[in-house]
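Priority: medium. Attachment 1 of 2:
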């Protein structure tokens, strides 16, 4: 049996073979992922769908799933936070169901707080801001479960929370599952975060232990694999990737901002209208991100007026 067609049933087996699986050729990864897609489809008697963001990963996932099961629907959650180029790409895709959250991003940040750094950090800061012992404790030390370097956010003059994704994306997806009984294929990679790697090692691609089962057939793929697949099959993709954006998540999200510090410099250069809206104060009709980023010491783009200054600011 080849590695690509093997089934690793235990966390130890998956952990031991992770590097070998990641090193497989694209052809072998297609075979491996196809097996996972078929297993999940059969287990749920075809009551499945592709969670489709319009980004490169979900574009490849949708093409791969439909190469096996052509009638599987795609579901796009229209949060209002997507790049216009991405929305145009989704509109050009057949058999896509559009869903909407019941609150806007502006309502969420006013009600819950701003998404900053990461979901894990934002959750801990939210707990600390509300005086919960767990949050206060975890902001008091460094280590795997501690975040003392973000303790300053506890006293920020604005609320911080990880709940944005729950409201804007997970809630509509849960409602769709209740209405249709369909379970999702997700375009996630195991290497996107330590948490996703841990989940993959523990559960594998097809997760049946949660309230809503899900499948992540591209877990062992790399970004290079995704681009090779796109070029091999001549797939279209949102032009925003050609503007220097490595990913096409929500435009105004600040998760990962301490790593991608120049994100909003880039946004001002490529999408000045959207940039101006997110920097404008809340009471002036905007989203108030300038105050948040200034407090965190992250470049906002407010002091840069041309591409030369953007480049200098990125150094």
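Attachment 2 of 2:
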């Amino acid at each position: 049996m080849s590695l690509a067609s093997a089934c690793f049933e235990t966390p130890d087996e998956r952990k031991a073979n992770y590097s070998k699986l990641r090193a497989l050729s694209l052809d072998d990864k297609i075979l491996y992922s196809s097996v996972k897609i078929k297993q999940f489809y059969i287990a749920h008697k075809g009551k499945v769908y592709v969670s489709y963001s319009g980004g490169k990963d979900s574009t490849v996932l949708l093409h791969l799933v439909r190469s096996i099961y052509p009638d599987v629907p795609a579901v796009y959650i229209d949060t209002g936070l997507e790049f216009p180029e991405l929305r145009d790409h989704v509109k050009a895709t057949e058999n896509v169901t559009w869903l909407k959250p019941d609150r806007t991003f502006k309502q969420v940040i006013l009600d819950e707080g701003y998404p900053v750094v990461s979901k894990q950090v934002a959750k801990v800061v939210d707990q600390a801001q509300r005086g919960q012992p767990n949050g206060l404790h975890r902001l008091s030390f460094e280590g795997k479960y501690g975040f003392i370097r973000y303790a300053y956010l506890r006293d920020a003059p604005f609320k911080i929370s990880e709940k944005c994704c729950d409201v804007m994306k997970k809630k509509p997806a849960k409602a769709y599952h209740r209405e249709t009984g369909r379970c999702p294929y997700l375009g996630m990679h195991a290497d996107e975060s330590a948490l996703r790697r841990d989940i993959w090692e523990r559960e594998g691609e097809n997760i049946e232990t949660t309230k809503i089962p899900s499948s992540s057939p591209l877990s062992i793929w790399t970004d290079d694999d995704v681009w090779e697949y796109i070029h091999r099959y001549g797939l279209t993709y949102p032009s925003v990737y050609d503007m220097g954006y490595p990913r096409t998540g929500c435009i105004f999200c600040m998760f990962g901002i301490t790593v991608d510090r120049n994100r909003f410099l880039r946004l001002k250069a490529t999408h000045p209208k959207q940039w101006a809206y997110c920097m404008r104060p809340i009471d002036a009709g905007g989203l108030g991100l300038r105050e948040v980023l200034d407090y965190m010491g992250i470049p906002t783009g407010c002091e840069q007026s041309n591409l030369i200054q953007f480049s200098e600011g990125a150094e």
